[in-house]
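Today's session is about reading a structure prediction critically. Students often jump straight to the picture, but the first step is always the sequence itself: look for stretches that repeat, for charged clusters, for runs of hydrophobic residues. Only then move on to the predicted structure, which in these notes is written as discrete structure tokens rather than atom positions. Here is the chain we will use throughout the hour.
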Amino acid sequence: MEIKAEVKSISKLKDYYFLVPDYQREYVWKPDDQVEQFLIDIDNEYEPNSSAQKSYFLGSIIIVENKGKFDVIDGQQRLTTIILSLCAFRDILKPLELDDRQKKYLQSIEELLSDFDINTDKTHLRLELQYEESKDFLSKLIQNKPFKDDKTASIIKMELAYEKLKSHFKSYLLESLDSLTNYSRYFLTKIELVVIESENLSSALKIFETINQRGSGLNAMDLVKNLLFSKANELDFQRIKDTWKEITLNLQTCKEDGSPLRFLRYFLMARYHNGVIREDDIYKWIISPEGKEITNYENGPLAFAKELKKISKRYADLVVATELLKDGGNYPNNTNIGFVNKYKSRQHLILLLALDIESTNNEIEYLGEQIESFFFYSNTIGIQAKNNERLFAQWSSKLRGVKSIDAIKVVIENTMVPYLKDKVGQFKSEFLNIKHYSYNPLYRLRYVLGKIENTVLVKSGLPIQGKNFLDNLQVEHILPQTPKDGILPAEFKDKDEYFNTVYKLGNVTLLESTINQAVNNFNDLSNDWFLLKQQEYVKSNIISTKLLNDKFTIGVNTALNRFKADYKYSFDTWNKDAITERQELLLELVFETWKFNNQRIDK
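Below is the predicted structure for this chain, in token form.
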């Protein structure tokens, strides 16, 4: 492998004409992040009026010769930012009255942007972006021509970076024109890069892999992409490029295109790797003998890219579903996971991504329903998220290639069910003493109570309610949080015991806001406060709240009346014992609500 590496200042880049190939990632530097850090780092090294300026090392670029120009394999973000900086310097200096020395600086800057080639009788740009998202924006900026096309996300970032750079450089002009000129001299002569010239694309990608061995930040995803290009027939380059663009678009829909490592990590854990894999180890594992053999990307880079594309679509759709927090999505059971395990949860995707690549919504939704039940029990017990990730990574291997609900049922019976059956006793003990704030945030508590309400509705022969209905409800403390004048019932020895009881799950119910405002006034515990509340509860549309009025019934021998009798859902007074009884009743309903393969976990 022939490699040529030289340290070059920016002024020496006039020896090259660079091309960013169309399969490379678009410009992603943000003005208030990487661009700002770029400027801060330079300013930290630059010492105005110093005769011995320190150099600033910007990093390396890897290039391969291509018909007299050079393809940029790594470093296009830095190179693009340098060119944007040069455009900013030029556009500040050009309208000014310059002396001969300053004109030479402007001339040097313009030569670093483009140059006339006598051999071809053409003007060539120093940097050309060939990926579709650039749409000639940079070339128009270099040539000082207006850009009238629609702006992509990449163009917007370049435009913002240019304005950020220009604004920063103008701060030197505010001091004096000489101050700006001296700063530009430092920029041109003291900012240095290592230019690594490789003999061909394959060896260049090998260098890229070695330099970025840890695959940190976005590099692991970039490394995988470049790895696929290095293994592909050149005839497949366009197809891989198009496929990768779709992967990026899929991740954009769930707002994870800027940080795709979680998707890549879960993809590998779900479909290839056995056990948990950390972000720092992703690329190392992929290029290991085990990774090469199991993924087979060397023999089928395009097929591997297509699998990534399909699974990225499933991943994005399920992330959107998890964050939905309302009715109307394509994956309602997975939206339920966002309620019961918080809408930012992602670990369940490990299992869902493992299903066969052609799995339908029916299979995905069925598995999602089982995962929701798992999260309800594991969260109540207090199992840590890292333990769940370990379990899911282990169980995902049993779901690989599974393409039917019957096959999913078998996996559930051999994984989640035995795991939780061993913990039923622990769950009962935890639940019978659980406080309602254990299910915070509020949307999760409302959902838990609402899901139990729907079980009551089903058993009462009534239609269930959706998530949008629950969103408008409030959580009512039956035994009030603020007893009038601080006077407590005699059964409580002190305030600690009282509030320990008030916050039990058995002491809360869902209630419409208008009714809740009324019952808030019934907090004089020395009178018939509960009777007054019961008279309001019966006005509610929540059946489990209506039933707190022991006189509430519907007809004769109806499903609701049978449910009331079977579950002994009748309270004529409200005290510690009543709260304990209702918590036990809720436990029974919980087992009826969160099932596995439609079977209670306690039976």
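Discussion point for the tutorial: Residues 94 and 138 are 18 Å apart (CA to CA).
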